[in-house]
Write a sequence for this structure.
């Protein structure tokens, strides 16, 4: 596997390094009230996002170099899993408390001024609320949050799927590959992405599927009835994925016209991070990992037939290079398993495969890349567009 990886990485050397240089991501240790910055001239910004699964906070150092999108350095990345889209009083209270706690932590403990703290509600939450007729839950969350922090004018933007997908592209994909790269961000409640078809960053062609890792898992779980076995879950998951593929994915890719114009397929989101981490744990320090369709397909099969093989203990046994930090690798793999269980990994990877399959052809090979740090990409692009 390592030999194959080296061959693939050599083939994609220029693009791979462009992305790595673009992201410039370094996770650094920090004291509670200060951070070790990387750039000579920079500001620290905080992005707090209410997503389908929970509330995420990213503390990011962004270079002051004018319009240099992507010059950012992750200082801290935290998540509270609150399941807001279940729309229960408990999930509401947990989400509100997490949102408030993150804001106070950033503003009071980390000393980040309010004008550099951005709070948003993700498109996945917006779509699920519209689907369930629960829009008032979002409005109540925003007003309650404003009350908690004693700032009635505090802006909490509810982003739509087009805006979120466009920002993800701007924040993740390097300028050198801006116009031949298709991005796919698989979240908890939806998958969105797209590309810029006309050589400018104002016209964005949207790709959108109303299923994400969690919603795919929930759809399969709902059909289990009186047979909770893994075999039955696999059957129900296959039915859900087949319906999503035939009902949404094929149409979404075809109508986007992306196949002919996109040489590189960049995948982000929690499931992309998980797949990259568990297929290539030895690349723990790489923010971007190239993969093939066949590797992801094999991984998906292993999740069902031999889940033990992708557990941290088993994967660590194959790490023989003494120069690698086994403790860091083990912790990152444990983090994946702490976020997703077997069924959720099966759902997310299955959805990822269905989308990747639309770009796989015997006549033309697309390059697939898993981006582990896509959750903070939007902040960099957002800052570039809203801060003077």
């Amino acid at each position: 596997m390592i030999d194959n990886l080296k061959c693939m990485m050599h083939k994609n050397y220029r693009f791979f390094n462009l992305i790595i240089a673009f992201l410039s991501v370094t996770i650094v240790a920090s004291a509670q009230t200060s951070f070790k910055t990387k750039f000579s001239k920079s500001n620290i910004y905080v992005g707090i996002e209410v997503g389908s699964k929970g509330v995420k906070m990213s503390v990011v150092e962004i270079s002051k170099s004018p319009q240099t999108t992507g010059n950012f350095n992750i200082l801290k990345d935290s998540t509270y899993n609150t399941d807001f889209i279940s729309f229960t009083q408990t999930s509401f209270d947990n989400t509100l408390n997490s949102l408030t706690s993150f804001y106070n932590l950033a503003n009071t403990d980390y000393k980040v001024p309010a004008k550099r703290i951005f709070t948003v509600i993700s498109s996945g939450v917006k779509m699920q609320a519209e689907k369930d007729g629960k829009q008032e839950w979002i409005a109540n969350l925003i007003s309650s949050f404003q009350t908690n922090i004693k700032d009635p004018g505090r802006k909490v933007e509810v982003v739509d799927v087009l805006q979120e997908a466009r920002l993800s592209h701007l924040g993740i994909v390097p300028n050198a590959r801006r116009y031949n790269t298709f991005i796919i961000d698989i979240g908890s409640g939806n998958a969105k992405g797209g590309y810029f078809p006309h050589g400018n960053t104002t016209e964005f062609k949207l790709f959108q599927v109303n299923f994400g890792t969690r919603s795919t898992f929930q759809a399969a779980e709902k059909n289990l009835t009186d047979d909770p076995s893994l075999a039955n879950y696999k059957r129900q998951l296959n039915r859900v994925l087949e319906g999503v593929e035939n009902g949404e994915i094929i149409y979404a890719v075809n109508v986007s016209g992306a196949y002919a114009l996109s040489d590189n397929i960049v995948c982000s989101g929690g499931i992309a991070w998980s797949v990259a981490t568990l297929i290539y744990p030895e690349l723990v320090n790489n923010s971007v990992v190239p993969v093939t369709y066949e590797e992801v397909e094999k991984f998906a099969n292993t999740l069902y037939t031999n889940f033990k093989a992708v557990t941290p203990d088993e994967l660590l046994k194959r790490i023989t290079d003494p120069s690698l930090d086994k403790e860091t690798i083990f912790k990152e793999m444990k983090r994946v398993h702490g976020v997703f269980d077997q069924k959720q990994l099966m759902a997310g990877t299955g959805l990822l495969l269905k989308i990747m399959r639309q770009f796989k052809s015997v006549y033309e090979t697309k390059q697939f890349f898993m981006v582990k740090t896509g959750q903070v990409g939007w902040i960099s692009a957002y800052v570039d567009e809203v801060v003077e």
Summary: The CA atoms of residues 129 and 135 lie 5 Å apart. The chain has 15 helices and eleven strands. The domain at 174-376 is CATH 3.30.420.150 (Nucleotidyltransferase; domain 5). The chain has two domains: 31-159, 174-376.
